[in-house]
Amino acid sequence: MCGIVGYIGNKDVKEILLSGLDTLEYRGYDSAGIYITDEKNQGHLFKEKGRIAALRDKVDESINAYSGIGHTRWATHGVPSVENAHPHQSTSGRFTIVHNGVIENFEEVKDAYLADVHFHSTTDTEVIVQLIAWFVESEELDTIDAFKKAIVTLKGSYALALVDNENPDTLYAAKNKSPLLLGTGEGFNVISSDAMAMVRETSQFIELMDGEVATLTKDSIKIEDLAGETIERDSYTAHIDANDLGKGTYPYYMIKEIDEQPAVMRKLVQQYQNEDGNLEINEDILAEVKESDRVYIVACGTSYNAGWVGKQLIERITGTPAEVHLASEFAYNTPLLTKKPFFIFLSQSGETADSRQVLVQVNKAGYPSLTLTNVPGSTLSREAKYTLLLHAGPEIAVASTKAYTAQIAVLAILAECVAKFNGVDSPLDVAHELGIIANAIETVIDDHEVFEHLSVTHLSTSKNAFYIGRGIDYYVVMEAALKLKEVSYVQAEGWASGELKHGTIALIEDNTPVISIITDEVSGPHTRGNAHEVISRGANSMIISMEGLDRQEDAYVLPKVHDLLTPLISVIPTQLIAYYTALHRGNDVDKPRNLAKSVTVE
Ligand code: AGP
């Protein structure tokens, strides 16, 4: 979490840093700050609690500055406050730093080196900048050596940008585990947590790797390892359209991204189709899956929920057994693995620390791995053996919507390609079905007013709610509940409907909202029975069913799509319900409290 930016060059830096931070705000929005150096080499620090908009109001417009660093924070150590906002400075004010990550041994470092230093914040970050200053002042190291020595001393995750006001024509950067890119241009260079934040300035980026230190001036970038060995690395072009980063005419990114799902389905078919119109995936991946005796899907949050649908698709289409694991559990409670596991990492951002932790273990053990991600060049993409892209376009709202459906669609494409490679008949024509689904999603989205009304009648005041379903619908209600929780703050459970009477039904009282999803012919009648059980106990029931399984009592009937792909359509009403519930409660839909989009700490 947290986002960092840096710029050194010829243009006035204030707006470059602030608009970069606006783009990075999805990584955290507890506080924000910038440090800029003006034409007379005078440094200026601006920090504010809360959003970038609040910081923007504080920045002195009259300053002309050509270099600076900035930060948007998701608090880990220390409450959200101006004191704890980055950038942090050494006591003398000579060094200024921004940091994304967590320093695990900050207390030990403080005791060992900094016992006499007065700290201004309760962050782990201030320890870094005070330590650099200590190495310069007490051991007479120059800045780069002090920076390197601090890095060797610190344990944890970090992406860092540092300014030394005695040498303001230079910015320093380093990373470990947390992502960091260097961007290059004519007469300027930049530092950024992701390419999106600086794509208005440049499309040329260089990856910085763990254990490397970069020195940037406006005309040069030098990368070296901790032993001082220079590292040459080519830049790559980030294919991001700056126009995709805006909300257009939409009030929130979340509703824009919900609306984009039909286009994403169609784009995925195009991207994975070969010249003959057949779906195609790198044969090396297919051969590895064929070789494996079990697929392990590892992910967090919404991606984990998509993984459950993926398990169903892989097992039903290819016949290979699949398991789904929470990355944060897998890393420290590793299950007994089969002889030939194949790992699939699902991650919209490609930066999730919990998932990366598992990938590091998987790589160490030499198992093959594939990342499905929306962000080319992201950490999980670089470190896995293979990558398949989601092609969903930037997903900015913290609540993931289009990445969920894109992950399921790519897993379906993968499963069909594996089946064909194995000489097995696929039970469905995925490209054809995704076309049908794109149209069906459009139909549901066109009915958005129905879901706005249902949100008002069922969820406008309730503190809790239940989504229930069985089989493939159970997987969807897990995601439906997560979406409702994170944006509306309604305490929601996604429950296997058959499990209700084993305990949870005790929570049902007058007007408790219970939303049933029924798309499965075999289990649907049972879920309907469970819906009636809760209605008898006073629940405010809403049944969303699929054409062919519908009854008069149902609140909404979904267009019929292929049995294996119903989550792609049944999830849409639940996204809209979460959106409208949050909207009517006056919440910040795109930036729900306490959250950040990219979870780069474990
Ligand atoms: C989704 O709405 C959430 N914000 C969150 O659960 C997210 O899916 C999770 O943190 C995983 O992120 P990733 O897909 O980028 O790895």
From TrEMBL:
InterPro entries: GATase_2_dom, GFAT, GFAT_N, GlmS/AgaS_SIS, GlmS/FrlB_SIS, Ntn_hydrolases_N, SIS_dom, SIS_dom_sf. Its EC number is 2.6.1.16. PROSITE patterns: GATASE_TYPE_2 (PS51278), SIS (PS51464). GO terms for cellular component: cytosol. It comes from the Bacteria. Its main location: cytoplasm. Residues 2-219 form the Glutamine amidotransferase type-2 domain. Pfam families: GATase_6 (PF13522), SIS (PF01380). The active site is at C2, K597. It catalyses: D-fructose 6-phosphate + L-glutamine = D-glucosamine 6-phosphate + L-glutamate. The keyword Mitochondrion does not apply. Keywords: Aminotransferase, Cytoplasm, Glutamine amidotransferase, Repeat, Transferase. One of its GO terms (biological process) is carbohydrate metabolic process. Residues 285-424, 455-592 form the SIS domain. One of its GO terms (molecular function) is glutamine-fructose-6-phosphate transaminase (isomerizing) activity. The keyword NAD does not apply. Catalyzes the first step in hexosamine metabolism, converting fructose-6P into glucosamine-6P using glutamine as a nitrogen source. Homodimer. This is Glutamine--fructose-6-phosphate aminotransferase [isomerizing]. The gene is glmS.
